[in-house]
Structures are given as structure tokens and as C-alpha cells.
Amino acid sequence: MRKDFTFTDFCKVGLHVINFLMLDILRKLDLDQEDALEETLIGARRKKALKIDVYAEGTFKNSLYRYRNRRFSGIKIFGEESLRDPGLDLSNESEIVALVDAVDGTDLLERSLSNWCSACLFFNPAGKSGEKILCSFVGLPSRKIYYAFASSDAAYFKKGNQKDIPVAGTSGQKSLEKASICFYGQKITNFRSLVQSKLLDYISSLNEKQVKKTNEEIGFRIYNLAGNPVMVKLVDHRIKDARGIDAVIEIKGQKPHDMAPGAYIALKGGAILKRLDGSKITLEDLENALLKPASQKLSYVLASTEELADEIIDHLG
After folding, report:
1. pTM here?
2. Which of 37, 62, 182, 216 is the most core-located residue (most Cβ within 10 A)?
3. Per-residue model confidence (pLDDT) at position 82
């Protein structure tokens, strides 16, 4: 990392840019939703997108480059289009870069659902292991911004001008029959990946036993919304007597840049992240995956406890 930059510098600029970006997206939607949600084509591959995607990425770039008299104008930005290039290799980058998905979950935003976010992380490919990800941010429509950074073992959130608050931690749920789990299931192939696994059969058997015994169903719940917003909520279980999100499952696999912002914050907040073979995914593993952010996919279970993660993995196969 350049000597004139600190982790605190990147936290400050990241919080500033994500806060400004979220306000600008919400303002754009409020003023001219029809224009914001109009379809357009981006990049050399002419990928379909909504105008709000293009608008938001431009807002991120302009806000970052203008901050503190253009102090961060040398940061190279990799947005949604470049991050989907399977040939992208950041291992030879000698300077800090920003990886950003300015509107993560555009399909949800388009349908007036709230589980979208703005996600970004500052990444130093030449940094030492464990500090390549300098800091990570997930901004929600509520204007709450979750973040974590390399020099702290905790995760935090901030809203507007309020003070920074440590996340509350996970629910501590250890049993699948009482858990609330999330998976990305809007697309049919993702939906089928869970339906065709053995996990639901196992849960059904638990439920049948409970019904026979007590005439009541188990407390298990499943939701087909996941991604960065749910990952950060998993480690901020503030009302201890209330139900929360206990696990996030991804069977089909996500490209590293799609899940790293939320996963990094969740790991810092005390969650357990494992591959489907039961091995742990560490911060260093995330960093190494981001060197080639679109050339592989990561399947994983993110859970509030190791016991819950292991129970899910044991019954997925």
C-alpha cells in the first residue's frame, strides 16, 4: 500500500462514496424511475443492462475521483462489465484497485424489492496475505452501510452522520431444524440446484418427525433471496429473542467478485464460511480468488456457527 494511504483513508473514502452513491440512486429513482429502469447495452459485448446500472457506476467513479481534491484519482476502477471478463487477471496489478458493483441486484430494484445493494471493496493485489482486501462496503437502500477493513478484526455499520457501530454478531444458531436459511433462487438453474439436493429431503424428514410428535411443524424457514445484503445481516443479529438469518447457501457457485464484499464483512463479523467439501474459506482464500475474479466460481455455506454449517454440508450431497 502506498505510504501516503492508510486503512483509515480507504474507510473514509469508501463510506463517503457509498453513502453518496446510495443517495444518488434513490434520488434518481424518485425523480425519473421510467428513465432509470430503461434497458440499454453496455461494453464491447453489448451486454443488456438498465440505465441505472450505467448511471450508478459513473456516480461511483466521479465521487471517488473528486474526493479530497482528487487524492484517489489514480485508483483504477473495475465495474460490473470488466469484472465479468473471464480473462481479467489482477495478479500483475501493482497499485490499489476498486472492485465495484454499483447496483448489485438490479432485477430486485426493478421490481421494487429491497434486497439490492451497492457493493465495493478496495483491493491491493501486491499486498501481503491477509491485507490484500483493504476494506469492503455493502450499502443498503435503508442507507445503512456495513463495512470492515484489514487492520480490524471486527465489522461495523454506519448510517448517515451517525457514529460507527460494531455489528451485533451472529444468532449463534446451531440446529438446522430451527434455522432460517437463504439461497439465491430467482433463476431456475439456481433454484433447481437446491431443490435437487438432498437437503430438503432431510429437512422434510425432520419436520415429519416433529409433526408426529407434537402436531406442530419445525421452526425451519427458507428464503430465496441471498447475496451481499443477506450476508451482512447474518452478522448483525441485534434482537436476541427474535429470529434472524442463520445461513446463506450457494450450491451452483458465484464468481468471487459477486460475493466477496459481503463474505469479507461476514467473516470479520464472526460468521463461518465453508466450501461444500467442509473446508474453510479464509480471508486469504477470498483474496486469492479475487486475483482472477471471473475465471472461477465459489460454492459455499455461510453460517452463524460451525455446527450449523457442518449440518447443512453433511446433508447437501
Report:
1. 0.95
2. 182
3. 85
